[in-house]
């Protein structure tokens, strides 16, 4: 009996968007209008690439970025939840599927000593160039029309589950915890026995309820959360069963 927990990162594990938080490092803590207005829907990674060039051009170094990123607060109750999962790792496999990047997520998890809670992190690969600029690449290529060009979370989840099956690991239940529009695609892939846990008041919850109203509801059960304590309460019930 093993459960798979799939977490989004921004606005789910942490209570902010790591990509917009990094702007605190910019001169006057803001971006020039031309740069801010250069974002095109579905091309966030490219936009962030330009932001990182701007920060680098303005002499923002790796240690300053790290100091800034590691001040992002965790979502309410999340520290308790991750501690609980860490204590029950024999029952839970735990992965992150995020449109952030490897550097930011690694910094945050290691600073709070939560990196051992997660078995794998699927996100855009990032590294500092020899000139000290942060560079981010697309996670993968895919053919899903619903998702941003750089990441289809359904594809990531499906490939992970297939790989686990090859290793002889199958899950009693998949529990997907997220908040954003790009979490809808993997939620629609979940089966009847699985659980989607959208964050209350965020895009994912709204999209799921729109689907229900148009009589094409998701197959899985839906449990809304506002604090990660809600998620922990559910997991405790699961373990008792």
From TrEMBL:
Per the record, a Pfam family? Put_Phosphatase
Binding sites annotated in the UniProt record for Mg(2+)? 8, 10, 179
The active site annotation covers 8, 10
Q: Which UniProt keywords apply?
A: Hydrolase, Magnesium, Metal-binding
Q: Where substrate is bound, by residue?
A: 19, 99
The molecular function terms in GO held by this entry are: metal ion binding; phosphatase activity
Known InterPro entries for this protein?
Answer: HAD-like_sf, HAD_hydro_PyrdxlP_Pase-like, HAD_sf, Pase_PHOSPHO-typ
CC cofactor:
Mg(2+)
Q: Which domain of life is it from?
A: Eukaryota
Q: Which NCBIfam families match?
A: DKMTPPase-SF (TIGR01489), HAD-SF-IB (TIGR01488)
Query: What is the similarity comment for this entry?
Result: Belongs to the HAD-like hydrolase superfamily. PHOSPHO family.
This one is known as: PHOP2 phosphatase
Species this chain originates from: Loxia leucoptera (White-winged crossbill)
Q: Gene encoding this chain?
A: Phospho2
């Amino acid at each position: 009996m093993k459960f798979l927990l799939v977490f989004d990162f921004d606005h789910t594990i942490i209570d902010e968007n790591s990509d917009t938080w990094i702007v605190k490092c910019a001169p006057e803590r803001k971006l020039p209008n031309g740069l801010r207005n250069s974002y095109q829907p579905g091309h966030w990674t490219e936009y962030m690439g330009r932001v990182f060039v701007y920060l680098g051009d303005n002499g923002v170094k790796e240690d300053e970025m790290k100091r800034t990123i590691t001040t992002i607060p965790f979502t309410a109750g999340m520290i308790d939840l991750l501690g609980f999962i860490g204590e029950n790792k024999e029952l839970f496999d735990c992965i992150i599927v995020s449109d952030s990047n490897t550097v930011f997520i690694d910094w945050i998890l290691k600073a709070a000593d939560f990196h051992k809670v997660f078995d794998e992190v699927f996100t855009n690969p990032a590294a500092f160039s020899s000139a000290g600029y942060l560079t981010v690449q697309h996670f993968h290529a895919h053919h899903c029309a619903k998702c941003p060009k750089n990441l289809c979370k359904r594809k990531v989840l499906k490939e992970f589950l297939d790989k686990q099956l090859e290793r002889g690991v199958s899950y009693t239940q998949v529990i997907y915890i997220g908040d954003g529009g790009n979490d809808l695609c993997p939620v629609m892939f979940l089966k009847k026995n699985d659980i989607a846990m959208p964050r209350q008041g965020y895009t994912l919850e709204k999209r799921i309820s729109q689907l229900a109203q148009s009589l094409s509801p998701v197959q899985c059960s839906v449990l809304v959360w506002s604090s990660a304590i809600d998620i922990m309460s559910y997991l405790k019930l699961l373990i008792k069963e």
